[in-house]
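seq as requested:
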Amino acid sequence: MPLIALTGGIASGKSTIARRLASHGAVIVDADQIVRDVQTPGSTVLQRIAHTFGAEVLNDDGSLDRAALGSRVFGDAERLAALNAIVHPAVRAESARRFSEAFAQDADAVVVYDVPLLVEARVDDPWDLVVVAHAPAAERRRRLVELRGMDERAAQDRIDAQVSDEQRLAIADEVIRTGGSLTETEAQTDALWERISAR
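struct tokens:
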């Protein structure tokens, strides 16, 4: 029943690896989805966000206006820390519940936590394995511009807002290099699955 953390910088191919592991039978717990789930209208988390950052961060239907919130916290370390203090504990609690649920359904499950902010928020958790998706920053910037439609400056800002590649690689038990083709990434992921299965 291994509990695996899968992390990587923005546009590093982490989702591709997660999908491939899922195709082998891994249970994927997606941190970004949990963030969305704990911020649904009426949730305590969303109420605290609105109280802290103003009702202007809510849409007319009561849902979170991510762009409005982002414009208030992006580039402001103090406000970002305040947001994280609201969101991270709720995400930690919900992810732990989902891990437990997966292992209760299958004691031999391989549970993979797909988590962008591992270094920032969860590095000291008791992971059995930390897997880092790694592509050079120039390649990730190209993907953000060509595949997600960002301009060069916005793409670089997103990359710069995250921890460095060196910090991520320093915590890795396994590195999947995602700068090449999809086939190469999937082959590395398949080999990783074989090593996990052999444990």
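The beta strands are 3-8, 27-30, 111-114, 129-134, 174-177.
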